[in-house]
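Quick board copy: two proteins, each given as sequence then tokens.
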Amino acid sequence: MINFLSYTCIGIGIVFWFWGTSHLVSNRSVLFKLHGLSVADTLGSMMIIVGLLLKIPSEWPLLILGIISLAIWNTMLGYVLAYCSTEEAKNE
């Protein structure tokens, strides 16, 4: 049962990766595309790590650190992208 749940989480993570990448060919703005891509990649990567956590629970400290790092760094990247798209950043 654990193997099934683990592979299901990993599969869902891979689906999120491809789903985020598929929106890059839309006619939206570059920042909208980057936002969708970063959210989908973050969720996909977290699901893959949860799948690995189910598969190898002995490595839980490292995997939890990976989940926390993904959440923090991708949030900060979103703030940097948002700041860089404002008029204040362009005038400096």
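And the next:
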Amino acid sequence: MQGNPVYKFFSALLCYPEAELVEALPEFQAALDQMPELAAHREGLQALLDYLGGNSLRHIQEEYVSTFDRNRLHALYIFEHVFGEDRDRGSAMVDLLEEYRKYGFELGDDELPDFLPALLEFFAHIPPADAQKLLGDAVHVINHIGKNLRTAGSPYAVVLENIVALSPVEPQPLTEPPVRDMDEAMETFGPDVSGIEPLLKPSIQTVQFYPKSK
């Protein structure tokens, strides 16, 4: 199935940074130099690559966790910004999983379908027109996360902004999602590592797709 590799570029940049990412920075640089879809945001993307290559792996990992895992305004789980912890999120997950399966893909056991890097990886494997249609459904949330990252001064903001620029749909502002009562959430999920906030989602660091066997 032929898709647009630019989505894979963004997916990899938004995953938890491992040593393999740093080692592959020359390949990211080559893609930045060659992909026309990246030209409009070249300066910001170059700054991100320079940041990833100019700091220790431990530092960029700690900053990633602080940015995306410890701040819900920047969470890379699309439905978290739409439904919060409302139970309707589960139905939306099922519907999105059906989209994956429609094209013959299954997520790994520890992966959620609304994790943005997973969704972008999926887009890279399906026809570009279909990817754009699905992107148009998610662009409002992606734009919301990107604005929050820009406000926070994160070098990752440019990635979300570039993804938004790929969509023909004009993003609209989001309303605040419902928030589950803290006591109920603590009882259901237990405390996080700090012992203060509930664990609302599993930690996902890598994205793998498994085509269904015929």
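Board note added afterward: The mean pLDDT is 82.
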